[in-house]
Amino acid sequence: MKKEKEKRRWLQGCILIISLLIFAPQASAHNLWLGLDHYDQRKGDTAKVFLYMGHSLPFSDLGRPEKMKDFFYVEPTGKKKNFILKKYDPKSFFNEVGVDLNIREKGTYLAVAAMKPLFVSKTPEGNKRKSKKELSNAISCRHVEFFTKAVFYAGKPGGSAYNTVLGHAIEMIPQKDPCLLKAGDHLPLKVFFKGKPLAGELVYATYVGFSTRAEYPFTARTDADGIVNIRITQPGIWWVKIPLKKIREDKSECDVDQYAAILTFEVK
């Protein structure tokens, strides 16, 4: 009996390890980001902001507004305004989930979305959006939090909205205005995790047109101060991601915490 219990425990441990190795990479392939019809607006324009969920650029699924906990944008003056994503006419050619923003001021804007935290557990019957404590047959569990930002401007870049610290669990803060970048420049980013600089983690950057797969022309690790310098190799819409996984010591509720932050902007 004792040997059977030990064997069963060993098999359960193997299943957990295998599921984490297989299940986690699949989860990391999903990305949440915001995009715009134009990253260079005019004062008085109506900017269209879209929410996407997908594996690579530019192809994606539509984001689901009901799964988000925050939508807002920061004006060049630093004033924060909430907005509600809407679904455009399903009869139209482009049926995208987005919102129209009335641009009243010149300068640099920051649009933000944050997903509601959720548990995803693997079970013999498939994935369940519950923690291990809520299930009797969970093989593995991950806790997920995704955040996304888009930087754009109206008229002429300016103001300090782009480096607003929002207090997300994981957050990238540009140290210079991305709207002022040219090909050949570097964009310094400071990465925080739960309010502290995140050192030694990989940051990935790509641009629309480089690849339709999860491939990146630039990767680098943050330094001891959480800083990474993104090399901007050419004009276009850029997409920067910092993923992070933390394995829990206490696995009674869940095994892994999975975080990701994505920043988009355009380089002229």
What does this structure look like?
Strands 2, 5, 6, 9, 10, 11, 12, 16, 17, 19 and 20 form an eleven-stranded mixed sheet that branches. Strands 1, 3, 4, 7 and 8 form a five-stranded antiparallel sheet that branches. Strands 13, 14, 15 and 18 form a four-stranded antiparallel sheet that branches. The protein has one domain: Immunoglobulins (Immunoglobulin-like). Strand 19 and strand 20 (256-267) form a beta hairpin. It contains one helix and 20 strands. The protein has one helix spanning 2-28, and strands at 31-36, 40-41, 46-54, 61-62, 68-74, 80-82, 86-87, 97-102, 107-115, 118-123, 126-128, 140-154, 170-174, 186-193, 196-197, 202-207, 218-221, 227-231, 236-247, 256-267. By secondary structure, the protein is mostly beta strands.
Report the CATH C-level class. Mainly Beta
Per the principal axes of the C-alpha atoms, what is the gross shape? globular
Sequence of secondary-structure elements: HEEEEEEEEEEEEEEEEEEEE
Could you report the average pLDDT, rounded to the nearest whole number? 84
By secondary-structure content and strand pairing, the structural class works out as mainly beta
Cα separation of the termini: 70 Å
The CATH architecture name reads Sandwich
Count of separate structural domains: 1
Strand fraction: over 45%
What are the segments in which pLDDT stays under 50 over at least 5 consecutive residues? Answer: 5-29
Record field, number of beta strands: 20
Classified in CATH, the superfamily is: Immunoglobulins
CATH domain topology = Immunoglobulin-like
Estimated helix fraction: 10-25%
Largest sheet: 11 strands, mixed
Number of helices: 1
Evaluate the radius of gyration. Answer: 20 Å
